[in-house]
Design goal:
alpha/beta
Length: 242
């Protein structure tokens, strides 16, 4: 199951898993067109695909929805969907903080718990795999005006470490601690250039980079759980490059 597989990183992950022989459940929030494009691409790679609408901001509805799928076996749960936005700093700030926490942490954690019976039935070496995408700025340099977002990602990191203990030994749980993986559409070119100048490997990540790491953790890392694995081209080393 790829949560948020209609485009960008989620689509890249879904297609990599399809290439690796997995059938897919791809969730989307509002982008049904993008989800159908992902579906068509994955089918062309030989996968069976089910699309499932899911809003992580409404936890109970999302959890009831996956229960309704009646899954008996699940090999992997990959959470790519997230909300990334600047603090509103208005009277709606508390609402925004709650929304970030639900979408980025609480619902993904409860999804893993809800799906644990199906994940426990996986025949993958080392057991099933649960992965979510975190953010290097949780432990690196805080982003100004993103306190609500970063607080939710901190909760995700900590919650997934606790899940690794809770769901062991048959389910592995890890966080990919990402830098920029594909540019946010709203980021100006001058900010993009400044960011790349501080990445030791001289570029931002791509959906393929993320998908390759997901594939490795899912299929080739049976003894890794509770890890927070950087995927940032060395950005979190803090070097000023260029």
């Amino acid at each position: 199951m790829v949560v948020g597989g209609s485009r960008r990183v989620g689509r890249g992950v879904a297609l990599e898993l399809a290439r690796s022989g997995f059938d897919l459940i791809v969730t989307y929030h509002t982008d049904i067109r993008g989800a159908r494009e992902t579906e068509s691409m994955a089918i062309a790679l030989g996968a069976k695909v089910d699309l499932h609408k899911m809003d992580l901001n409404h936890s109970n509805i999302a959890l009831d929805g996956v229960r309704g799928l009646g899954l008996e076996k699940l090999d992997a749960l990959i959470v790519s969907a997230a909300v990334w936005e600047k603090d509103c700093n208005t009277g709606a700030d508390m609402d925004q903080a709650e929304r970030c926490m639900r979408v980025n942490a609480r619902t993904p954690i409860e999804l893993a718990r809800t799906l644990a019976p199906a994940l426990n039935q996986s025949s993958l070496q080392g057991g099933a795999c649960v992965i979510a995408f975190g953010d290097i700025h949780v432990d690196f340099r805080p982003l100004k005006d993103f306190k609500n977002y970063l607080a939710s990602k901190r909760a995700l990191h900590s919650g997934f470490q606790a899940l690794a203990l809770e769901l062991a030994p048959k389910i592995r749980v890890n966080v990919i601690v990402a830098g920029v993986i594909d540019w946010p559409e709203s980021m100006p070119q001058v900010e993009r250039d400044a960011y790349v100048a501080r990445v030791p490997l001289g570029r931002v990540g791509t959906p393929h980079d993320a998908a390759a790491l997901v594939r490795f953790l899912t299929l080739e890392a049976p003894f890794i759980t509770g890890a927070a694995i950087p995927l940032d081209g060395g950005r979190s080393l803090g070097n000023e490059v260029g």
